[in-house]
Amino acid sequence: MMTTFKSGRLYIIGAGFAGQTLANEIKLKGIFGEVVAFLDDDPEKIGRRIDDVPVLGPIRDVARLLRLHPADEAIIAIPSASKEYLEELHRILKSAGFEKIRILPGISQIIDGDAHLIQTRSIDPQDLLGRTPVTVNLRQSLNYLRGKRVLVTGAGGSIGSEISRQLLSAGVARLYLFGHGENSIYQIDKELRLLQEEGVGEKTVLVPIIGDLKDRDYTDWILAQIKADVIFHTAAYKHVPMMEENPVAAIENNLFGTDNLIHASRKHEVKRFVHITSDKAVEPVSVYGISKCLCEELVLEAASETPSLSSSFMVVRFGNVLGSRGSIMPLFQKQIQKGGPVTITHPEMERWFMTIPEACSLVLQAGGVG
Predict the structure, then answer these.
(1) Half-sphere exposure of 271 toward its Cβ, with a 13 Å CA cutoff?
(2) Are residues 27 and 117 in the same domain?
(3) Is 94 a catalytic residue?
(4) What is the CATH number of the domain that holds 121?
(5) Residues 6 or more apart from 98 whose CB is under 8 A from it?
(6) pLDDT at 334 over 60
(7) d(CA 300, CA 97)
(8) Which of 86, 169, 284, 345 is the most exposed place for a label (fewest CB within 10 A)?
(9) Please, what is the end-to-end C-alpha distance for the chain in angstroms?
């Protein structure tokens, strides 16, 4: 998510609140280049000047007339843009000669239009795939977390790290970033601190924790120390073929680790426990699917045995999440790049995809609904 910038001429695509916020930040810092124009399709904005920066449009017509320099860059600042419109914008900007195109994250990561330059990133092929994501009102969905202590397991992973980013806007008292991998926890901790420095989200105390859920005593000790109110349990081994070759590791990490976390959560009166699972847990035919199916049963058993007024244990299932470490899409892309073949399990196989921000927004919403 982190990006680096070179000084040059910047064109902001979208003269709405998000685009204006970015332009103001660029002007104030004075180190990222100069915003020379907004490009927009809204007739009511075209022809105006915003803080002495002209609004030009329609985008398709104006882009053809631009005389670009090598350092010129386009930033798409329309968080609510549909996939279809985003694909059209990308095509127009590429045809106009823009080599550098950045984009703000989806609306699920922009709270009340509160956009920051640090959130922009290079546009990715996955931004142009599939349908327009479901949008979730995060401001409303995150109210149940305000002032709470929240633990995210697997916080360095693709799902855990995105949940952690979105939690910056939840007003939590403390955000515990738990993971087994030192480097991944270091990276998400530094990223979140940089986002906070740049004004993203609300003030939250960040606490990185290195540990292994397979260690029952350690897991119990950690939860006794941090007194977490809410846990988002995303940590798991996820690659199906790899787990077929390593069934002991799959059961030990996914099942025993989850059991240890549930045991400690009940003992130390965690109020909400949200377990991230998989559609592969439905009538499982793989070691990974079986491990997640058994985890679901453990969580649901805890839910049935725990008084609803004191604690809530719940399960959220995912399909294939675009860009996640467990997604099939990176493999498909590599197979296409080398000329094929693209391997599928059956000619009539269909896959249903979610984006990472979309999936994580739904997880946070589920935690509030229960």
Answers:
(1) 12
(2) yes
(3) no
(4) 3.40.50.720
(5) 11, 68, 72, 73, 74
(6) yes
(7) 54
(8) 345
(9) 30
